[in-house]
Amino acid sequence: MDLFEKSIETLELPRVLAMLADQAVTQEGKERSLHLRPETDQEEVARLLKETTAAAKKMILRGSPSFVGTRPVAGSLQRADMGGSLNTRELLDIAGVLAAARSAKAYGEGEGDEKTPIDVLFHALHPNRFLEEKITGSIVGEGEIADAASPELAAIRRHMRATESKVRDILQRIISSSQAKYLQESIITQRSGRYVVPVKSEFKNEIPGLVHDLSGSGSTFFIEPMGVVKANNELRELQAKEEKEIDRILAELSAEAASFREDISLNYDLLVRLDTIFARAKLAGRMEAMEPALSRKGLCLRRARHPLLDPKTAVANDLELGESFDTLVITGPNTGGKTVTLKTIGLLTLMAQCGLHIPVGDGSTVKVCQRVLADIGDEQSIAQSLSTFSSHMSNIVGMMKETDQDTLILFDELGGGTDPVEGAALAAAIIEQARRQGALVAATTHYAELKVYAMTTAGVENASCEFDVETLAPTYRLLVGIPGKSNAFAISKRLGLPEEIIQQANARVSAENIRFEDVLTQLDQQRQEMEKEQRQAAQLRLEMERAAAKAQEYRDALQKEREKSEARAKEEARAIIEQARRTADEVFRELGDMRKKAQKEQDWQAVNDQRAGLRHRLNEAEGKLGAQEQAAPPPMLRQAKKGDTVTILKTGTQGTVLSVNKDGVLQLQAGILRITAKQEEVRVVEGETQTQKAARQYIRRTEHKLRSLGAKAEVDLRGMTTDEAEMTLSQFIDRAVVGNLTQVTIIHGKGTGAVRKAVHTYLKRCKGVSSFRLGRYGEGEDGVTIVELK
Q: What is the average per-residue pLDDT within 674-703?
């Protein structure tokens, strides 16, 4: 196996591609996904990544397009092009491709979408709705042709049904006649495509006809009576014509499909390609992945996760290689995550080169490599007499032959499986040679010599998988720049190795190694303390920034609300003053007109005094921009009686007392309105001068104008009794009439219908109502009544 292909298997790219295939819809899309291989051209990789990004954005905005019904049609089209006739299944597959192409093109040409790299694929689709509908209209199912496929077929089948009915009628008369006693069963069946009846063997001569079959026991003869032979012959002729017409229809459809062979084949290829692109986008959403930037120097992965691990539990790490250093030596305890880190670097690089988004954070970059070569795992072989060391070395020898400046090399436990001193020296030499050949290198090791090598060699950086000495468990965090300890003694103790064995082993470690490990331990402790302090400081800074932002936001909101309130108050005050000025000017004009008509009854000196006083009060109100307080009602001079003119305090309008009830309630006529009021709600108007009457008429007209401005077009009577509803409705209709409204809505709800009935009864006798009806769909239906006013 080629070393690159072997590394692809080692890094588990096929497992990711299997997940990709699960997202594809078409069968060929699944196969293409499984056979996807990394591209080595940077421009091609960039194009693939942009396609995936474009599809992901479209899915967010519009969902995923449908590729259902896209099946291989190349073979069928080729046979049709050579003059062959396709069967119904093949023609339905062609119609399915055309339908999918039409649906995908409509999806791609949706309004409001920005231009994307995959738009050209959607635009290149060539739907053929005429051929699609001709096939689906002619073929209703696999092996079944519709009557409407041709006029000839419809006529043939119509005659067939008539002939079958004729045959059945003849046979039914036999079953219902005295000859029924000769039958084994009173049924009509078929043998060899002809209608027959089952006759008892002893009576086979009693029913003249043709024998078509015999039961297994010999007790039943299936006989075609002579009376239906001619009809059966006619039916067989019609069946032959039907088959011939169906063959002609299929041949015609096949020829028409062959004439559009190129367009249909292109549609299929484009649909499969779009299917694989959207499968990459779906996988990106499932992995919570994103598009990385491409770099020619190296890779920088922010918050990178291994894509095959559960994203909820996987620890994200920052990985860097090729920018500040070209070699990363990773140390740490077993089961600490060293090998997973190596695989993450390699697998994410391969995924990106396949056009897949990778599970990383913003600011991540990937280098496009010609080869990603990995020596990971134990590949010892008894059959080939290879030990662990020999199998690793065989891989390394092959890798070194293919290494150049566009290669990423991953070594797991480099130099392991042999003498530690020789293994460490050999590992350092291999790394140096790979660096001279221009490769990017990441290697895991337990050798202290390689830790020292990384600390003392430019371009080589240490990294370690963090180990929590308190819990004696790995945290799976990668710490770049810090060498790690193997922690073999601590792990062995946690697993239950006796303390005396650990002490004996510790006594055998050289003093130099002990001092080196102690230094690493102290460095790790100091690092953890510094990180803890940094986290606390960052948390405090974040809390302070949040508090400051919240306080500033609160101050800004208060200031805006204050400015808004002041502006609103000033605007309302100006509006009130302006309205008062207009009203006063109109009063003055009315008074001028009245002066000409009633000079003898008018005291003009008093009018001038009143005008000056009104102007003075208006100026005072404008200066203060304040609202006027409502004046206290005048005292009651006497009780109102029938025929009196009274002023209604609540509305300021005047009316005439029609009658006084026993309980003192007054029945009033105010214009076209008839209302009730209590004695304390009105004041009797005594004799008026002509000028006062004219002023009162003007005030009434002004009030009508103001009330028309406030007239509402809708009233809600739900929850009221019928009496309350009728009173409220009366007032509402009066206001609407005064306000010159032409249409109003009455909300009475559905319920028992009592309020609705009371409303309709009132509307029928109301003079201001032109017509009314129940609401339609969208207006409230039976729960509302729409009223047209005169």
A: 67
